[in-house]
């Protein structure tokens, strides 16, 4: 083993330690027997028990999961259709312009997006004579709007890898365009759709700034609930909740990578069989 290889491995190990050390500490102290955040006084599951008996936190968790699932589903459908439309554009300048507009929500600071969407919803509510317009539907629209670019950018590469002649051949054989899409194109781009949907789901779970400006008093998400606790003190039951969320997302990412690896193996085997 060369000296350069040893140094590079040590460098990578230090980066991973820097990234995951805070989460490891959080997970360890979620099993602490006391409220101390710097002295581990014994293993206990009391904070997990208190977590499941906290109605406000459980209601915020339910709202967050419902919002993430619905927004991910809506944005996945809309983003996939948008990606198909962008990919089918013939004029290069038009496609470039649309992609530039698509990338703006990703580059725009979240606080600017949150404030602008809040003003838009309040203005629209005033026009229709509604005061308390902010709530589930406004935060859903806000989440879908910033998730769409990620779906589009996940599906477009898969569409570009798909041979358009296969879709045309299916139509030549008498297949309806919609049926041909679901029979030929959809299976090829499915890994990109799944990857985009999972990314949209995790982005919705994690979002705080845009949710903070677009939610109403009757709909609280988990990040907002945790933020309200920081004004006093965050107790270890929040460590327990964060540990459970981290574990769930970690398992989800492993399954996604496994599915992606399996799909890539199938595509390679298919290409070798065609040769």
Structural notes for this entry:
The protein is an all-alpha fold and 275 residues long. Helices cover 80% and strands 0% of the residues. It is built from 11 helices and no strands. α2 (46-53) crosses α11 and α8 packs antiparallel against α11 (236-274). It is globular, with a radius of gyration of 23 Å. 24% of the residues are buried.
Primary descriptors:
275 residues, mainly alpha, 11 helices, globular
Write a brief structural summary.
It is built from eleven helices and no strands. The protein is an all-alpha fold and 275 residues long.
Percent range of helical residues = over 70%
**Portion in beta strands:** under 5%
Can you tell me the residue ranges where pLDDT is under 50 for at least 5 consecutive residues? none
Taking all residues together, what is the mean pLDDT?
83
| SSE arrangement, N to C | HHHHHHHHHHH
How many individual β-strands? 0
Can you tell me the overall shape? globular
Structural class, by secondary structure, is: mainly alpha
Characterize the biggest β-sheet. none
What's the structural blueprint in terms of helices and strands?
Elements: H1 3-29, H2 46-53, H3 55-87, H4 92-107, H5 110-127, H6 136-161, H7 164-172, H8 177-206, H9 209-214, H10 222-229, H11 236-274
